[in-house]
Amino acid sequence: MTERVERAGIGLRGNEWLLLIGLTAAFVPALLELSEVWSRYEYYSHGYLVPLAALWAATAQRKILPQLPIERSLQGALLLGLSLMLYGVGRLASIVSLQGLALVLCVASAVYFARGRAWVRSLGFSISYLIFMVPVPDVLITPFIAKLQLFVSSAAIEVVHGMGMPVYREGNVMHLPGGASLFVAEACSGITSILTLVPLAVFLAYFTQPNLARRFALVVAVIPLAMLGNLIRVVSTIYAAQRFGTEIATGELFHQWAGILTYVLGCFALLAIGSLMTRMLPAYKAHTAP
C-alpha cells in the first residue's frame, strides 16, 4: 500500500532528513566496528572505498531520479522495522557481519519507505554494491583461506621443482636447503586479491559490459588472476630466499611491496581483460521486426 506524492526530486525533504539522521545515529556503533575490521584485515581494507563507489554509481542515475514518482510505502516501513530488529540482534550477539548486512538492508528499506519501489529499482546497483563492505563471517572465510593456502603451496612447489630448486613442502611450510623454512601465510593465499578485486570487477562489469554473460565472465576472471598473481608471489619469495636469504625474502619491505605489486598487476590485468572483451566481442543488439 503506497501514498502517491505528486512532485518529484532528488533533494531530501524535512521528514527524510530526520530519517537519515536517526538511522545514521543508530548505525554509528556498527560503522565503528566495521571500520575496525577494515583496518585490521588487509583483505577487507577496500571497505572504506565501497560507500564512495556506491555513491558515485548512484550519480549515474541523476537524470533519471528526478523523473520518478515519490511514493511512501508502508511495505518499506515494515521492512525497515525488520532490518532494525536484525541490527539489534547483531549488536546483542556482537556479530559484525550481521550488523553490516542490517545496514545495507536498512538503506534499501529506507529508500523504499521514503521514495518507493521505482527508486529502489533505479538505485538497485548502488545499494546492492554496499554488500562488499560487509565482512564475510569467520565460519565461512577461515576454511576457504586454509584451502587457498594449500592450493598455492602445492602449485608453488611444482613450479620450483620445475625450476630445479630442491625445496619440499610440509603442509603450508616450504623447507629450503640449509634448514630455512617459509610459511605460506594468509596474505599469500590469494584471499586478499580475490576479496579486493571482486568489487572492482563487479563495478567495471556493470558499467563497461553490455550483458549479464559478459559481466559474469569478467567477475569470474578474478579467481584465476588472483591465484596466478599469488602463485608468482610465493615462487618469487622462495627464489629470493634461496638467492638472498630468508631474512630479506620475508622482510617487511620485500613482503609489503610484493603484495602491492601483486594487487596492482591484478588490477591492470582485469582492466586489460575488460578492454579486450569490449573491443573483440560485439555487443548484443536486439533486432525487432520492421
Structural class: mainly alpha
Our measurement of the CA-to-CA distance between the termini, rounded to an integer number of angstroms, reads: 41 Å
Strand percentage lies at 5-15%
Which regions have little confidence, pLDDT < 50, spanning 5+ residues?
1-7, 284-290
Observed structural traits:
290 residues, mainly alpha, 3-stranded antiparallel β-sheet, two-stranded antiparallel sheet, 12 helices
Descriptive notes:
- The strands form 2 sheets. A 3-stranded antiparallel sheet has the order 3-4-5, with helices on one face. The protein has a two-stranded antiparallel ribbon with strand order 1-2.
- 31% of the residues are buried.
- The protein has helices spanning 14-40, 50-59, 74-93, 96-115, 117-122, 124-129, 138-162, 191-208, 212-220, 222-244, 246-249, 252-280; strands at residues 2-5, 70-73, 168-170, 173-175, 181-183.
- The chain is built from 12 helices and 5 strands.
- The protein is mainly alpha-helical and 290 residues long.
